[in-house]
């Protein structure tokens, strides 16, 4: 029988906090009948967000084309949906059950290129678009391509999304942390980047790429155009590729803010020497189609022979799932003005985004009123990274702890806090140590995806819990 010590050591080292021990405990409590508010992961439809009618109508016809021949089809489906379904079936006659080209169905890749061109007003090479099984698989493909030796390293924002730290561990590479500037809206700081990369080089690490998440997960921050251009110049100076995680590009709520793509900034700067990997997904935005695992990767500034290796990697996996490719197409090519589906699509889309903005404000304003908690109102994405304070035990001399001991102490503290929060209130959040945090600080990440009434109840439960928990620690 296989034992734990026989398991790949790199897998044993990997951690994925958003589905860790606290979530497992939440599922156990739910099975026992306890009401759980899952705020641990950006999974909109699991938290009562309804799927878009247009997407589900199209998938119904594409998965079961016989519906098109039924007399009631014209009554059940808008004319533009029927026409679009017939067009897709004509361009992909083998249907959803057959493999596609390794890089994805050609007309969908063309639609992605058109989407980027319309979004940014820049030239797009359709032969540098790859359809992937969600953005996660795209990130893993990029890191597989870039990781050549155990000393290759990736600059990762702290706090970060655990996909990156887990993948780096799995691939046996090195993680190079750089801290985001919490006091400046979680923007990137050039001095911090320089300090981080120099420290890595002194340890013999070869920095290969920098990861940037915009809008931010878990921070909810939206990067400025100037910040993005600084990152590109930094990447050029140090010979880094850029991994731009842009899956929340539709989720921008802050007044006066807008999403700026790395592709557009790269083009504006006329930069030809920095390789850029850009990721997008059907799981976020306003679609929330997490289960369909669709997304795309766009590559810029990559020689043909290197790109051929990326396509070879895709070929090893045959292709991304076809339904995910189709949902990606529906994301980048929604109903147009004049289509019968357009009005309902716009109504549903706007309602979802408006609701998210309102819930971000309810959560941010509510938590900021709690003594010992602090968070900015999320400007984008689906999360808040909440800073909280706890008293130390009376007999602990925190200043005498080593850096490693402090990290273990703080990880134990925020994990215990989140576990007790779950046990007492049913609220499932993720400890900040699972994302990384500045030493000496404590955080947790929460989504604001549950319905408004649950968000309001969550804030009140957290207020009572935090006061009680902090008071108990004072007595220890």
Average pLDDT score? 88
What's the structural domain tally?
2
Output the radius of gyration. 23 Å
Task: Report the sheet-strand fraction.
Answer: 5-15%
Distance between the termini: 46 Å
With strands numbered from the N-terminus, the spatial order across the biggest sheet is 2-8-7-6-5-3-4
Class by SSE composition: alpha/beta
Question: Could you please describe the fold and organization of this structure?
Answer:
There is one protein chain. The chain is of the alpha/beta class. The protein folds into 2 domains: 7-49 and 349-474, Aspartate Aminotransferase, domain 1 (Alpha-Beta Complex); 106-332, Aspartate Aminotransferase, domain 2, CATH 3.40.640.10. It is 45% helix and 13% strand. It contains 16 helices and 13 strands. A 7-stranded mixed β-sheet has the order 2-8-7-6-5-3-4, with helices on both faces. The protein has a 4-stranded antiparallel β-sheet with strand order 9-10-13-12. A two-stranded parallel ribbon has the order 1-11. Strand 3, helix 8 (162-170) and strand 4 form a beta-alpha-beta unit. Helix 2 (21-31) runs parallel beside helix 15, helix 3 (53-63) packs across helix 5 and helix 7 (134-146) packs across helix 8 (162-170). The radius of gyration is 23 Å and the shape is globular.
